[in-house]
Amino acid sequence: MEKVSETIAKQLLQIKAIKLQPANPFTWASGWNSPIYCDNRKTLSYPEVRNYVKEQFVALVNELYPDADVIAGVATGAIAQGALVADAMGKPFVYVRSSPKGHGMENLIEGDVAPGKKVVVIEDLISTGGSSLKAVEALRKGGCEVVGMIAIFSYGFQVATDNFEANNVKLNTLSNYQTLIEVAAESGYVSADDVNTLSNWRKDPANWGK
Q1: Domains defined along the chain, listed by start
Q2: Fewer CB within 10 A of the end CB, N or C, for the chain?
């Protein structure tokens, strides 16, 4: 997985799905100041990257969850990724909304999945894990057995690790923040001083830059 993690990190930087700006931080919707911005939906616009991500998702599902019945994507960022994986594996696909529709059936889970089915959840990005775990909760309430979650990228926050452990959800990612920093430093994308800044941010992201 080390080679895969590095390759994914390089691709995300190359297509600007991830941007690093330690000297000019972004502001997240949560209000956090951040030296990194990640939008993995951009991978869908680059066939070579899109296919590589899909292939690595499929390989990991086959390795870790060979008895999975259904692939689920988390809205909205992982709907397309999950559908690609399900199609490649010939498995049923559903996706989980962040909130129920305000009309019609008011579904939270879109698609058909029977109680008792083993589900692998596909995500594009893990920050604190809150929205991802809400999707897991919805699937469990529907009677599904969530066997695990696989994401493209994780910031590696301790709060996310704690949240996944508390909810008894296995999480694997194709790449991660630590690998990204190493790849960015080796390529000259960031300086040694920037590496220190990027490392310090992850230790206390809620208060960084204040």
Answers
A1: 2-203 (3.40.50.2020)
A2: C
